[in-house]
Amino acid sequence: MASISTDNPGSWLRPGERVFVGAASNEPLGLLDALRPGVPTGVEFIQFPLRGLNGTDFTAWGPSVRQTTVFMTPALGKADPQRLAFLPLGMRAFYDYLRTDIDVALIQVAMDAQGNLRSGPNVDFLTALLNSRARIYAERVTGATAPVGAPLVSPNRLAGVFESPREFLPLDLPLIDDTAAAIAAQVAEVIQDGDCLQTGVGAIPAAILQALDQHNDLGWHGGLVDDAVLRLIERGNVNGLQKSIDPGVHVAGMALCSTAGYDRLAELASLSFRSADYTHSYEVLRTIDRFVSINGALEVDLSGQINAEVAGGRQLAGTGGAVDFMRGARASAGGRSIVALPATARGGSVSRIVPQVEHVTALRTDVDLVATEYGVADLRHASLAERRERLRAIAAPVFRDQL
User: Fold this and answer.
1) Minimal CA–CA distance to 394: which of 307, 302, 292, 298?
2) Measured distance CA(152)–CA(168) in Å, rounded
3) What is this structure's pTM?
4) Closest alpha carbon to 321 in 199, 170, 227
5) How far apart are CA 396 and CA 372, in angstroms?
6) C-beta separation of 13 from 39 below 8 A
7) What is the DSSP string of 350-385?
8) What is the pLDDT of residues 51-93, one digit of tens each?
């Protein structure tokens, strides 16, 4: 593996190139630190950052540097709007987008416990990049051990390697408040033994997973695993034995864990990291019997439309993988698409159940069940009038008459 010359980034990165940068727990921060002082002119960086973990505003690197993102973060809210492009794509579509017209990819790798070179704990787009024409430069972190279930990376495919003493980026464990716990209790009631689950990240998903202690033979196929998922795997609640595909195997695109969680991944052979062409593929998801997707939202309207990304006219997030999973769950035999959210925002002064959403992330045809702390609205086979009444019933009581 050839080493990268950090003294002269221009020797391996050229003006005007389009550069993909890994993100989430696998952002190559050491490589980025080395690159920033000498970034060539006109470079465009493409990234799928995670809110709360990744915070690089590449437009601040120079007056000619541009950035394309498919997810917004607080840092990007301060970026130069003339040089920041928001790309409204879901995970599966972004995977295909990266297969062409990318000149360079910056990724993160590590050695596993047996001394094999593997990807770090985010492989969402890895195979798209490995199979593209892009030159791939890797930061090899020496402060962490690669997950045993992550894909092997051939040194011959790498154009250069930068060694760094860093660890994988840890994610703080979420604080579960009374509202999250109440929502989790509602959702746990509609989860059945043998279901195959997918959840997002945050307090409500963590609370839901915590509420599944008494469930058995659950499966896992999702975009991510975190400490809460690992706990259920270790307890045996999630064993994958009833999965119609990949029986006994837990499938995810990335891990978002504490440092202790990443350490456990080094030996968890039952967890298989797969790219988004598998984890988020409609054709794959529809073949998983009783696949249950559980995702969040900013607001839901009385027809069942979902807004998960825009508030007050500002793009706060992105589509992510939610719609991919919702549609896969609805097509699955016995599957369910669940949206879980608090009934109110801003200290109870604003209802999240609204007459009409500000922005449509998911269609009213993408959702089966909506859960708040006040109950679960079953929208399956419900008329528009029935949807309105069922969604009003799970709104905060103070807002029900207005709705």
Assistant:
1) 302
2) 17
3) 0.95
4) 199
5) 9
6) yes
7) EESEESS-SS-SB-GGG-SEEEETTEEEE-TT--HH
8) 889 989 999 999 999 999 999 999 999 999 999 999 999 999 9
Helices (H), 189-247: 203-210, 227-235
In this predicted model, what pLDDT tens digit does every residue of 128-166 receive, in sequence order?
A: 999 999 999 999 999 999 999 999 999 999 999 999 999
Instruction: Classify 362 as helix, strand or coil.
Output: strand
**Strand bridging mode 350-351 / 314-315:** unpaired
The residue ranges of DSSP E strands in 277-349, in sequence order, are 291-295, 299-301, 306-307, 310-311, 314-315, 336-340, 344-345
The candidate with the shortest Cα–Cα distance to 299, out of 291, 309, 290, is 309
Q: Residue 105 has what DSSP assignment? A: E
| Element (DSSP H or E) covering residue 369 | strand 369-372
Q: Locate the DSSP E strands across 142-240.
A: 160-164, 196-199, 219-226
Specify the amino acid at residue 228. A
For residue 273, give the amino acid letter: F
Select from 349, 345, 341 the least CA-distant residue to 308: 341
